[in-house]
Amino acid sequence: MVIPIEEYSNTTVPELHNHLERVLLAEQCGFKAVWVRDVPMHVPTFGDAGQTYDPFTYLGYLSGQTSKITLGVASIALPLHHPVHVAKSAATLDQLSGGRFIMGVASGDRYEEYPSMNIAYATRGAAFREAFEYIRTAQEDFPILTDNRYGKLDGKMDILPKPHKYKIPLLVTGHSQQSTAWVAEHGDGWMYYPRNLYMQEHNIKEWRSLIPKSQKFDKPFLQPLYVDLQEDDDFKPVGIHLGIRTGVNYLIEYLSQLQSIGVNHVAINLRFNTNNIEKTIEALATKVLSQFHI
Asked: How many structural domains comprise the chain?
């Protein structure tokens, strides 16, 4: 589930109604993860302020209120943050949650935020790569890193805490100004936007064909999906922004199609949902999640 778990189709800023109760309900109902976004500035032309709270602070709060649901951010716009702060915040959250944190990373796509921080938008691709390398290196003991725009690590200082286990998974969002080959080699998974089934299958096959060139293990593919779930289970699908208005029967069919082309995880966003949110969560759990082995 994507947070905020509420309908706010007619405004860019959610009210966060019953936000904690709905996260707890999602966990109780068997959803595997909740996702927040990194939206440093409210840019009205972008159309969505996300959950408004700082992602690390908010997920830290949720980690203390939950026990098993995965806590994800999709995604931290790396060029807009110094990577030492990202690395420390991420590892802190991972430790406090018992290893339940997954971090999506991106180059950022809201142009207006860059000049407000005096950061070059045109070079965000290179900045993303260097921040990614910095965060990865920071997870090592007394890291050494040279020739990086964000600073030099000489091995005489350490960055604490370290991740709960081996490392914090870093999932690349979109291409983040990188090649598909770079995403396949460096990311621990790939998050991509909803596309028609043929295009999405092509994207996944191309990406997965590149993974064996650098690693011997597979990686997960994730995508979001806006859903407006109707009370009529047989309601025929209608397209909405990056998703569908539908009954549960077609939703099950569609998710099965996504699974068949290689999608491993879907983050459901209820921003445009027209029915009661609590009833929608419960219907998704009892009628949809129950059809999949998770």
From this structure: 1
In sequence order, which residues have a C-beta less than 8 Å from that of residue 43 and are 6 or more positions away? 110, 112, 113
Query: Could you tell me if residue 5 is inside a domain?
Result: no
pLDDT per position as a tens digit, 60-115: 999 999 999 999 999 999 999 999 999 999 999 999 999 999 999 999 989 999 99
pLDDT tens for each residue of 222-277:
999 999 999 999 999 999 999 999 999 999 999 999 999 999 999 999 999 999 99
Evaluate whether residue 6 is within a structural domain: no
Query: How many CA atoms within 13 Å lie on the side-chain side of 167?
Result: 12
**CATH number of 178's domain:** 3.20.20.30
Q: Which residues fall within 8 angstroms of residue 83, CB to CB, at 6 or more apart?
A: 130, 131, 134, 135, 138, 150
Please, which residues bridge with residue 248 across strands?
A: none
Q: Angle formed by the axes of helices 197-210 and 248-260, to 10°? A: 30
Helix (H, G, I), strand (E, B) or coil at 1: coil
Query: Quick check: is 170 in a domain?
Result: yes
Give a yes or no: residue 217 inside a domain.
yes
Contact predicate 9/30, CB 8 Å: no
Element (H, E) at 213: none
Strand-pair category, 153-154 with 144-145? antiparallel
CA–CA dist 227, 17 (Å, integer): 18
Looking only at Cα atoms, what is the longest distance across the chain?
63
The answer to whether the CB of 226 falls within 8 A of the CB of 272 is yes
Range of the domain at 225: 19-291
